[in-house]
Amino acid sequence: MHDPVPSPSPHVRITVDAGVMTVRLDRPDKKNALDGGMYGALAAALAHASADAAVRVVVLTGGPETFTSGNDLGEFVKVREQPGGGLAAGVLLRELAGFPKPLVAAVAGWAIGIGTTMLLHCDFVYAAPGARFKLPFVDLGLCPEAGSSLLLPLAVGPRRAAELLLLGDELDATAARDAGLISAVVVDPQAHAAQIAATLAARAPGALRATKALMRKASRAALDEVMAAEGEAFVAALSRGEAIEAVSAKMMKRPPDFRRFA
Length: 262
Ligand code: COA
Fold this sequence. Notes:
Layout: E1 3-4, E2 12-17, E3 20-25, H1 36-51, E4 57-61, E5 66-68, H2 73-81, H3 89-98, E6 103-107, E7 110-112, H4 114-117, E8 124-127, E9 132-134, H5 148-156, H6 158-165, E10 170-172, H7 173-179, E11 184-185, H8 189-201, H9 205-238, H10 241-251
Parallel strand pairs: 3-4, 4-6, 5-7, 6-8, 7-9, 8-11
Antiparallel strand pairs: 1-2, 2-3, 9-10
This protein binds coenzyme A.
């Protein structure tokens, strides 16, 4: 029996069953691009899961063809047009970075931008053989977020991180596993994530929380500092000509032209 939990966004589906909260992105016509409402719903789901003793584990997933195409490109334009406004993603990133219980991700299809960087905050990531991971921040005239400038080199090493962040290289599921970005490639990531989540839900919850907190303790202060710096740099970049050109080009499905920028 899966109890639906009210979600402030129609594109984020939340159920709780036997101690496992499953949070599913559901905006297939936009490839599960994340808008402000979805960030709010995801953050609220994690806050609820943190506080509710009946939730032992959270599974984060998307659709069968796309995990998420990342931040809604239209939201980048909105932030630029509202000086002083912050990124809607910030509210989710704060919850993700401090989430105290086990977090399991099941990925099929594309995981782009924050679709990949949010996985760095998950304890287990299972991906379908056709999953693809890409961090096109520089392609968009932007910079990394979600603490990925710290967490990605830690996860995959500085050489691979440079290929992913500076060149925008794409990783398929096998390469992502070999690089250490994900836990395993499995035929049915949602079923596998559900099985791991059930195992975790039956384990001693206090010991799980203490172990997760200890594993993250050494990098926590650095992560907060890096996320604050990334947030400032990202919002500043959104108003620069390079990002205006790159984001417009992406939205208009044409190649960007950076020749006029020094
Ligand atoms: N923000 C807003 N809309 C998006 C989107 C995003 N991040 N990703 C996809 N969409 C929309 C497309 O504009 C399109 O809308 P339309 O039908 O109204 O034209 C629809 O979703 C389908 O996307 P499309 O590009 O036609 O699908 P595809 O299968 O050819 O390609 C992707 C899929 C994910 C590779 C491609 O959509 C893409 O590159 N998206 C942008 C990713 C990105 O740069 N994200 C920001 C990271 S910081």
